[in-house]
Design brief:
The structure is a homodimer. By secondary structure, chain A is of the alpha+beta class. Chain A has two domains: about 140 residues, Creatinase/prolidase N-terminal domain (Creatine Amidinohydrolase, Chain A, domain 1); about 230 residues, Creatinase/methionine aminopeptidase superfamily (Creatine Amidinohydrolase). Chain A contains ten helices and 19 strands.
Chain lengths: ~375, ~375
């Protein structure tokens, strides 16, 4: 339809031929949005986007999505009536008409559900289902200028929301209440309602859990505040982590950890070069923390790519040999976690250029002292 | 841990024995939340909850989720380091220690991803993976009083947000802007930040698409406004659809359709009886619209169950033989759609009792006239 998406599908068809695949079959998710230009919802009814090596496309959708599907793909929509018995016939008909009764059909294993796998296998028992995750990641990891501009806008919205919230960290507020206010601020400032993820807001000892969920913990004087949040603008996301403290001073051990993590961020930034393996960035952050005796307190990888999805390749984990490329966008977010006490994480977003990493996030890596 | 979740897992173990299954393996989603009491996020890393027929449980999680997992399951957490190469060993070790190297392992096909399916198959090549969706649906479809109370709160929050928004439908606002304001109102009134779904707000001809996504369409005098929205409170959701018009009158054809759809709702309510097949409710709505010559304009099923998930069994579609039970909660939402012109849908939420359906949604089925 729009040349942009048709071009992307043509590029994927090229990649399919190169990799010896006959087709791609996608569930709703960022890759489907990326290739078809409409964000279908993943609900109980199967929706499949198909692209063949010859560059033919199809969308298998329930009848109530026919209009949206036809808008982005005038030819190739297979709409089925709203009855589970109609799912298999629709998939079978689409695959038969596309000539996909055998061969190798690529899928995204971390997106496609078993329900759709079984429908594909039933429709084409002679076909082999194979992992096309890397092929798709390759297409999506390098951002075009339009995508990068949307990411920059998502960063700006998220950072403005952080500033809006600063006066509101007062004793007695709960994590859940502040997560609600942060969400409202993000939307008021222009984020789409579908945030990349629910904000993580963790007070004091709760910050020792990297994926803490905001709860009824009440903020008290002296508490560390960890916030991990992002916005979505034109489909693209931001993701950052900053710290504040309800105090005029930072305890020495916490300050020491914050500096160590900041050093780890800087080491990772120095290692982030076009052509370097993704694992080298992780290694740089990890070695910095290990030199401070904090190796065991850093319990996750150093970062992840982001774009239409908040977690997508490249993943910056130990030993990942994948070479970084120009125009990739990813986070650098080392952390140290002391169970029962606190956690410290700094999360920057980085756009890799031939000259090195451009840090997209502008908020400094300082623990904001909320008391004079 | 908490008796509530241990009891639910024990009930599932009973069901596994009755159905001749050896275990259940779940991805993050409503069933995992229902059975373990923590809402893990479905990200790229595999998370699996396992329950065996003997009633043993395990959670396979990345290291950064170890604390949360241990809180809800002090024994049985398998945490792996943040590296994809560690996924298969963790799953293999868990299944081996649970004695699950063969037998029948039940999954939810519309939740489990191929990634986790492949990990299970790799860890237990002799095991058979089978559909346990109906078994789990059976457990979750009948709500206990605590669940019902949460659903009632979610209805109240959503209805209050509708009332808050009424003065704000003014010429010049866009669908997307009003979706943002509705989201803010829902959160301000007490909804959790993770809404059951992004509100559907469709003006005029956009309402002809049941799953229209709010966009830049501007509201003008005379427009019909369709809103399909819900809130989430204590994990449980609401889901309703109402109509307004930026006019003091309703065009005759629209009024006629609205009445026909209301008649279909009433017919469906009369058919919603304990012991009746779910399909009979759909049939009652469908026949009512067919009698008005609107059969082809009703392009989806009549309703769906809801609870922790916004779409869950029972599904009210033509021919569904599943018998309705007391304490099920589901929507009744027939609609008629005229492409290029408008759409009309009324969506009630219903709690089925032995005496018949209790309508949970209080807002009347009237097109609100926004002009005096």
């Amino acid at each position: 339809m729009t040349p942009r998406y048709a071009q992307r599908r043509a590029r994927v068809a090229d990649a399919l031929r190169q990799e010896g695949l006959d087709a791609l079959a996608l569930n709703p998710g960022p890759a489907l949005t990326y290739l078809f230009g409409h964000r279908f919802l993943l609900l109980e009814r199967p929706i499949l986007g198909i692209i063949t090596r010859e560059g033919r496309s199809a969308l298998i959708v329930p009848e109530l999505e026919r209009a949206a599907a036809t808008r982005v793909l005038p030819d190739g929509v297979y709409a089925y009536p709203d009855d589970p018995d109609q799912w298999a016939p629709a998939v079978t008909r689409a695959l038969r008409e596309l000539g996909l009764t055998q061969g190798r059909i690529g899928i995204e294993p971390n997106r496609l559900r078993v329900q759709e796998l079984w429908l594909l296998q039933q429709a084409a028992p002679a076909a082999r289902i194979v992992d096309a995750g890397p092929l798709l990641a390759e297409q999506r990891a390098v951002k075009d200028p339009e995508e990068l501009a949307a990411i920059r806008r998502a960063v700006a919205v998220a950072e403005a929301a952080w500033r809006d919230l600063l006066p509101q960290w007062q004793p007695g507020v709960t994590e859940a209440e502040m997560a609600r206010r942060l969400t409202v601020a993000l939307l008021a400032l222009g984020s789409q309602t579908e945030l990349p993820f629910e904000p993580i807001i963790a007070f004091g000892e709760h910050a020792a859990e990297p994926h803490a969920q905001p709860g009824e913990r009440v903020l008290v004087e002296g508490d560390l505040i960890l916030v991990d949040w992002g916005a979505r603008v034109d489909g693209y996301v931001s993701d950052m982590t900053r710290l504040a403290i309800l105090s005029s001073t930072v305890p020495e051990d916490l300050a020491h950890a914050a500096t160590a993590v900041q050093d780890a961020v800087n080491a990772a930034l120095r290692a982030a070069r076009v052509g370097a393996p993704a694992g080298a960035v992780d290694q740089a952050a990890r070695a910095t923390l290990a030199a401070q005796g904090l190796a065991d307190a850093f319990i996750h990888r150093t970062g992840h790519g982001l774009g239409l999805d908040v977690h997508e390749p490249p993943y910056l984990y130990e030993g990942n040999e994948r070479a970084l490329q120009a125009r990739m966008v990813f986070t650098i977010e080392p952390g140290v976690y002391l169970p029962g006490r606190w956690g410290v994480r700094w999360e920057h977003m980085v756009h890799l250029t031939d000259e090195g990493p451009e840090v997209l996030t502008q908020l400094p890596l300082d623990i904001v002292r909320l008391r004079a």
